[in-house]
């Protein structure tokens, strides 16, 4: 259980922070950059939810919860020591990736195939989902970068890869099932 009765601690005033295992690292470390950008992705989803309702809002809420799981996963290094931990670390699992894939497939059934790239825009919800997509892509790039120097749960990287795809398809759904997509016209302003 999390109890936060004092928000500031002053422990990071010199530019370091604690990871989930208690180790202290620089606030600009690769690991902190990765899970910090996952947090930023979650905040952009909060903005998107201002324009969502029904099943779309429920799906975005599920994803926001998953992103907290993902942040918890990324802030806990040394997966090989998970079995020794006093409390088992929270890790993203394949079923969370599978759920995203199933939802992408279900949404995509309602859409006609694209014959052009689309510009981020259209409805307010679609525009916010495109922002979520680009921020989640950055979180993925940073997680891949981290995985090149430290151990990272492979399911976490898969989740971020599927998440940006989910956001792209959901943005099309939010644009009247693709009818209000803003199409890219190559060289239109030459």
TrEMBL record:
It holds the Pfam family Cob_adeno_trans. GO terms for cellular component: cytoplasm. Its main location: cytoplasm. Residues 7-174 form the Cobalamin adenosyltransferase-like domain. It is found in: Cytoplasm. Its EC number is 2.5.1.17. GO terms for molecular function: ATP binding; corrinoid adenosyltransferase activity. It catalyses: 2 cob(II)yrinate a,c diamide + reduced [electron-transfer flavoprotein] + 2 ATP = 2 adenosylcob(III)yrinate a,c-diamide + 2 triphosphate + oxidized [electron-transfer flavoprotein] + 3 H(+); 2 cob(II)alamin + reduced [electron-transfer flavoprotein] + 2 ATP = 2 adenosylcob(III)alamin + 2 triphosphate + oxidized [electron-transfer flavoprotein] + 3 H(+). GO terms for biological process: cobalamin biosynthetic process. Keywords: ATP-binding, Cobalamin biosynthesis, Cytoplasm, Nucleotide-binding, Transferase. Pathway: Cofactor biosynthesis; adenosylcobalamin biosynthesis; adenosylcobalamin from cob(II)yrinate a,c-diamide: step 2/7. SUPFAM superfamilies: Cobalamin adenosyltransferase-like. Belongs to the Cob(I)alamin adenosyltransferase family. This is Corrinoid adenosyltransferase. The lineage of its organism: Bacteria, Pseudomonadati, Pseudomonadota, Alphaproteobacteria, Rhodobacterales.
């Amino acid at each position: 259980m999390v109890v936060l009765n004092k928000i500031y601690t002053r422990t990071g005033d010199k530019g370091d922070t604690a990871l989930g295992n208690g180790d202290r690292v620089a606030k600009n470390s690769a690991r902190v950059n990765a899970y910090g950008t996952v947090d930023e992705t979650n905040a952009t989803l909060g903005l998107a939810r201002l324009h969502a309702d029904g099943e779309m809002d429920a799906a975005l809420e599920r994803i926001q919860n998953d992103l907290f799981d993902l942040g918890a996963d990324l802030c806990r290094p040394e997966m090989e020591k998970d079995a020794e931990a006093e409390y088992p670390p929270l890790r993203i699992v394949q079923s969370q990736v599978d759920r995203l894939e199933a939802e992408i497939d279900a949404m995509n059934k309602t859409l006609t195939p694209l014959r052009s790239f689309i510009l981020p825009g259209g409805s307010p919800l679609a525009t916010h989902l495109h922002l979520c997509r680009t921020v989640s892509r950055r979180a993925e790039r940073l997680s891949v970068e981290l995985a090149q120097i430290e151990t990272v749960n492979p399911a976490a990287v898969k989740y971020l890869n599927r998440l940006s795809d989910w956001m792209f398809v959901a943005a099309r759904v939010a644009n009247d099932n693709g009818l209000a997509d803003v199409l890219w016209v190559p060289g239109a302003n030459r």
